[in-house]
Amino acid sequence: MPFMNLPEDVRVYCFSFCDIEDLTRLEIVCKPLRNIVLSRRVWMPRLLALEPQSIPRISPYVDVHRLSVSELKYLTISALRSREAWIQPGAEIVSPTRYQEIDLPHKRYTGPTPRLISQNLGLDEPLPWLAGASISPMIDLIPVPLPIGNRHEYVVLRRQPFYLQIVEISSGKCVWECAMSDVPVIAFDVDADYVEGAKVFRLLTVSSARIGPLNMCVVKVHNFTHGLFGEVQADASVVTRNFRASFRLYRGRAVAYLEGDFIVISDYEMIWLINWRLDRCIKFNVVSDITLV
């Protein structure tokens, strides 16, 4: 019996034994085979059969069963190629599915100078990491891990002298920047996994500040929601927490992580665990018995 005369279920079952390369070849053989390959019954089981860590992030408001066949095919092939590239690095060159170059937004900085920042912090000399801020091109970048189903993609940039911008990747447009009163932002992080309601992601900023005679750290959690045309915009609700900073943390030696209700800030000698929703802070003193020779 000719293959095309077999029942559709049997033909789809036969294709389940084909790998991705075979399917892409069969797709260009003839129109009847193309119609079978470009079927939801071929690509949906392959996507759902992937290991959980291999499945691309899919937006919670996108029903996977409503994705088009081309979207299912793209997600499956991207996940498999990415997994192969990590499991067997160097075995085969995997070309990116999309490549682009964008120019970062050039916006004249009008905030405090490095010397003024140091004076505001009560320091006699500019901090080492701010001393060359006027000429240093250093930029820190964190991508916003938005799931499949969002038409816009963003990165968070930290420019010298340590102020933040959120930039849309497709257009290179700056859609948000931190208040000049928050400069210098000594650490920042993004969380898109544990947001609720209409919120898209949260941005954590940690700034040094002088409040009266005390050296303080100002922790802010910014919420971003969808705008009218799907773009992100800053929510008016900003959660602010202040706590007494150590000398190392105050001088900008810090890393920070945001996950759900919890913030972790470390200056390599002390670790602060903060529940920003309950306004609770726990400080851990790191004691090391390792001697470096």
**Shape annotation:** elongated
- Based on DSSP secondary structure assignment, what is the total number of beta strands? 12
Strand order of the largest sheet: 1-2-3-4
The description of the largest β-sheet is: 4 strands, antiparallel
- In DSSP terms, counting alpha (H) and pi (I) runs of 4 or more, how many helices? 8
Helix content, binned percent: 10-25%
Structural class: alpha+beta
Rg from C-alpha positions? 25 Å
| H/E series | HHHHHHHEEEEEEEEHEEEE
Instruction: Give the amount of beta strand, in percent.
Output: 25-35%
Distance between the ends:
77 Å
Number of domains: 2
Poorly predicted residue ranges:
none
Q: Calculate the mean pLDDT score and round it.
A: 76
Organism: Schizopora paradoxa
Domain F-box: 1-46
Pfam families: F-box (PF00646)
Protein name: F-box domain-containing protein
SSE blueprint and pairings:
Layout: H1 8-15, H2 20-26, H3 31-37, H4 40-48, H5 69-87, H6 114-120, H7 128-131, E1 139-143, E2 154-159, E3 163-168, E4 174-177, E5 185-191, E6 199-211, E7 214-226, E8 232-244, H8 247-250, E9 255-259, E10 262-266, E11 270-275, E12 280-285
Antiparallel strand pairs: 1-2, 2-3, 3-4, 5-6, 6-7, 7-8, 9-10, 10-11, 11-12
Helix pairs in contact: 4-5
Write a brief structural summary.
The protein contains 8 helices and 12 strands. It has helices spanning 8-15, 20-26, 31-37, 40-48, 69-87, 114-120, 128-131, 247-250; strands at 139-143, 154-159, 163-168, 174-177, 185-191, 199-211, 214-226, 232-244, 255-259, 262-266, 270-275, 280-285.
